[in-house]
Write a structure and sequence with these properties.
mainly alpha, 69% helix, rod-shaped, 4 helices, 2 domains
Length: 95
């Protein structure tokens, strides 16, 4: 017996089953794509040298390396005393 929209109950059930199969296929495809996109280890392996260099730089900066290095070189520049100078050459006494 046709419904108000001109389709029988069997046609509606067949359409629902077809939609269900399409949704199942789409869901399987989506799961595969999500697995591919979220595969961090493969992306890390592909860019391992850059990742290691970035990790070293980030660790150095976060540990205060830039400030420590600048303080070290500034302190070394003030530690020496000049013993003798000949032209632009100088003998320095570092203690």
């Amino acid at each position: 017996m046709p419904d108000r929209n001109g389709r029988s109950a069997t046609q509606v059930r067949r359409d629902i089953e077809q939609e269900r199969r399409q949704l199942t296929a789409s869901l399987a495809q989506l799961r595969g794509e999500i697995g591919h996109v979220t595969d961090v280890t493969a992306k890390l392996r592909a860019n391992l040298p850059f990742a290691v260099a970035g990790a070293l730089v980030a660790g150095f900066v976060l540990a205060g390396g830039v400030g420590a290095a600048l303080r070290y070189f500034a302190r070394r520049g003030r530690e020496h005393t000049e013993r003798a100078r000949v032209g632009r050459f100088a003998l320095l006494d570092r203690r």
